[in-house]
Amino acid sequence: DVDAIRDSTGEVLIGAVMEHVEEAGVHSGDSACVIPPPTLEAWVVEAVESYTKVIANALDVRGLINVQFAVAGSQIYVIEANPRASRTVPFVAKATGIQLAKAAALIATGVSIEQLRVDKILPKSGDGKANGVSVKEAVLPFNRFRRIDGTGVDTVLGPEMKSTGEVMGIANNFGLAFAKSQTAAFGPLPISGAVFISLSQRDKDSGWRSARGLHELGFKIYSTAGTHTYLTEKGIPSEKVRKNSDPQTDQLSANDLITKGLVQLVINTPLGRGSRQDGFLIRTAAISRSVACITTIPGFKAAVAGISALQKDEFGIKSLQEWMK
Question: How far apart are alpha carbons 137 and 187 in whole angstroms?
Fold first, then answer.
């Protein structure tokens, strides 16, 4: 995401470039995003800023514009360009200290960006600059819905927006900022205990390193058969549990782990969006018992970074005014 403003003279100011944690395919309103972008290469940031300015000028925008991009390898795609305020404007304003909404309103009355710089409403020169690392996380209402059978709404994220609000975390590094955002949105990430991991076939290759990270951080890992076999091959110890749909035995099931309070975190990445009863029951059980449940590999990686940061440091608290100094 890029938020920018343009005036009648054609000058464009980039408020911020935001990198989404979840990949394209998850609605931007449901994805966490980060300022400054933690993994985008410098040339990508420069390119999307340049494209944003070209698009803003082509549309003759007078005020705010938001452009969403997708990056695949060396190719940059424009998803959409909206010549209006987006939901990320308050986030960008707090992360950079730039009064984007006020500036856009004044631009609509004919004031130039140059004059707004003179009036100290905008920075003296250049574009927006982040203070520390800021993470915006979507607040999802899954725990508010229950079916008659006690199960809830499936927590899988997709192209339809499900969030009902947003929170923000600021820190000196991504791990702590992400951990703060999770605490505000869903509750604190665990810093010890056990985790249940069930990865779809397509996600095993990209997810096992994060599983190793949790093991190295001291977490006990429970996993279903396929994930257990894969993690064992990678030298990562885990205890195998049966799927909910497997024949009843004395062995614990995935749901047993959650309902008995034996795990503090659930990682379950489904394949596709059709009915997957095992995964559905796991995810709804986690939500109903307030156990953090992550359904994407990028979210898994971010959570490991957050837990690692929490084990090393405690939350620091500073006002927005202190961050803007």
Answer: 12
